[in-house]
Structures are given as structure tokens and as C-alpha cells.
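Entry:
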Amino acid sequence: MDISTGLGLFAGAVVLCTLILMGGDLRMFLDAHAAIVIFGGSFAATLIRFPLNSMFHGLPLGAKFAFTMRRMTQRELVDEIAGLAEIARKQGPIGLEKVEVEDPFLAKGIRFVADGYDSNFIRDNLERDRDNFLTHLDEGQKIYRAVGDCAPAFGMVGTLIGMVQMFANMTDPSKLGPYMAVALLATFYGAALANLICLPIADKLHLKLVDEEVNRTLIIDGILMIRESKSPTLVREMLLAYLPEKHRHEDAETVPA
């Protein structure tokens, strides 16, 4: 689990609740009209921007990857692939059938090598898989960013509606308070939804998309080198180029001479 996402949302909720409770109670900040304007309006505007199919794919996938961490780091992937290259060199591709690999994408590539598929088939299949996954993850990022862009605008819409209703009922003092609450709470809901939830999740998904693209490209190159029976040392050296400079040197120091 990506602890930072959950911790950040929890900390933000605690800050807001603390500020609210210091000057009143939570019931003062609950309003159905403001919620309808923000959540209903933002969803409607986002639905206009994106196909329904993208909404069904992007929202759950984005929520999933915002709260999950990749099972293996790039450094661990390099070590894992170099170890698999050693097995393939000693036992041949058939020896890879008994190996258990944690990463699903890497396991798929190893299965292709063990089954004897040619390099072009392996490259085309894995690259298509990678590109489809990245496309769906990018859709999720764009959808959350779109909601984050819409929410403050609809907060302003809710504020304007509340003010119009308030001014239209100036002769009835009992209605001024509720309409003013709608006006202010709509802006509050929109700002909180955008800046605490949607835009941070969109930024997190963008970072994970870039990281996942590097990791899956690293795996594809490693699988193809194993298929071509490259030496484990060469495989490791080639894949170290995907790591940051500092980690390359650390890995180089751990490789026996």
C-alpha cells in the first residue's frame, strides 16, 4: 500500500475537522444543496469531457494505483532479471518454467521465453500490454485532474446560486442564513475536493505512470536479452542504465568481480 496517499488524505481530513470543531460542529458544514452542486456538477462536466467507457476504466484504476505501491523496485527488477538470465544460461529456457516470479508483467514475459516464442512476438505482445495499461492509467490521471478543475468552478456556481436565492428572499430573514450557508459551503466543498483529493491523486498517478513506463520497458528489454541468451553480466550492465546514477554505482559495488 502507498502509505503516503492514505496518510496525506487522513492528515488533511484531520486538519479540516480540527479547524471546524474549534469554531463549531460538523453539522454546520453539512449541506445537501452544496454537495449536489459540487459532486453532481463536477461529475456531469467530466462525463461530457470523457467517454463513458473511459470513466469506468479510469476512475477505479486511478483509485487503485493511487493507494498501491509497485511490488518490486527498479533495482530489484534488475537483480531479478539478472538472476533469471543466469538460470536461462545454465539450464536453457526450459529451466525458467519452474521459476516463480512475483511481478505479473515479468512473469508473463518469462512464460513467453520458456514457451519458445520468437523475439518479435514477445516484443509486440509485451509492448502492446504496456501501452494499453499506460493508456488506462493516463485516462485515470486525466479524469481526476478534470474533476479537480471542475470542482472549484462549480463551487463558484453554487455560491452564485446561493447569493441569488438570498437576495431574492431579503424580505424573509429566516431564509437568509440557509441560502448564505449554501453559497459559502459550495465554495468550501469545491476547494476541498479539488485540492485535497482530486488534484493530488492526479499528480500521484502521473508520477506512477512515468515510473511504470520505465519499469515495464526495463522488463521488456531484459526479457528480450534473456531470449537472445545474453550473459547475466551483460544483462545487468544494460539494465543498470534505467536506474538513477547513484543506484547504478551501488549496484555495481555489489556485483562480484
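The chain has nine helices and no strands.
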